[in-house]
Amino acid sequence: MNAPEKTVPLLKVDNLSAGYGEMPVLHGVQLEIYQAEMVALVGSNGAGKTTLLRALSGMLPSTGSIAMNGRELVGLTPDQIFGLGLVQVPEGRQLFDRMTVQDNLLMGSYRRQDNAAIARDLDKMYAIFPRMAERRRQLAGSMSGGEQQMCAIARALMAAPVLVMIDEMSLGLAPVVTQELMEVLAAIQRDGVTVLLVEQDVQLALSGADRAYVMETGRIVHSGPAKILINDPAVQQAYLGM
Ligand SMILES: Nc1ncnc2c1ncn2[C@@H]1O[C@H](COP(=O)(O)OP(=O)(O)OP(=O)(O)O)[C@@H](O)[C@H]1O
Ligand SMILES: [Mg+2]
Question: How far is the CA of 47 from the centre of ligand 1 (A)?
């Protein structure tokens, strides 16, 4: 990674507030994500992590600023934001259960016109996730939780995202599957994709990410390199059970 990329954030969130109806949830959130980083967002139940991802995806009305490559996203529709390459893997995967794995993957690329590149990306997904290649004709809803999570991540990657945001990747999955998925994230990151990983498994998130933000009651309360946060006594006590 060269210096100029490091100094200009890919995503710059400033004073972002959002909520549900009259109820505010996010209070002046500020964060930055750089090209090809893996950033973790951790915090207790109800801290506002999913709400932040929804706000970034344009699914909740927000105030403040979300700039991606200098372009303001607040006020754009979810479809416009998706089209600019900010793609979310929602909690619970939300696959099309009655469609095959391959059709789910192709749904990820529905906004793209570059058919040759789509075909290449599909082959690439099957190389990254050999299990999806074996199961390309299987209905997505009939797969195991880990396989469904692979399918959901692959579907997001089929959108050719600039930034992929994954909500609760490890939820309900065996540690061996989670580890496999973390290795996939490291591989796609080496490929230049930027990752924002929301996790309740703080140990997992901090061991895989470059940097992390800790959220409490709608505010960012700690941030820094993941290797430093994992050794921070306040973080250890609150989130790592130490
Ligand atoms: N659709 C909704 N309508 C009203 N309030 C909501 C809605 N979704 C979430 N909230 C509230 O917003 C706050 C933040 O919730 P959010 O789901 O963002 O937390 P989270 O950090 O993702 O938690 P978890 O770790 O349990 O997934 C909570 O107080 C929650 O009750
Ligand atoms: Mg959540």
Answer: 7
Residue 177 domain boundaries: 1-85+162-242
Tell whether pTM > 0.85: yes
- Together in a domain, 24 and 131: no
Tens digit of pLDDT for each residue in 53-82?
A: 999 999 999 999 999 999 999 999 999 999
Number of domains in the chain: 2
Ligand nearest to the CA of 200: 1
Same domain, 67 and 146: no
Residue with tokens 């700039």: 67
Give the C-alpha separation, 190 to 215, whole Å. 27
Asked whether 21 lines ligand 1 (CB < 6 A), one says no
Q: Does ligand 1 come within 6 angstroms of the Cβ of 46?
A: yes
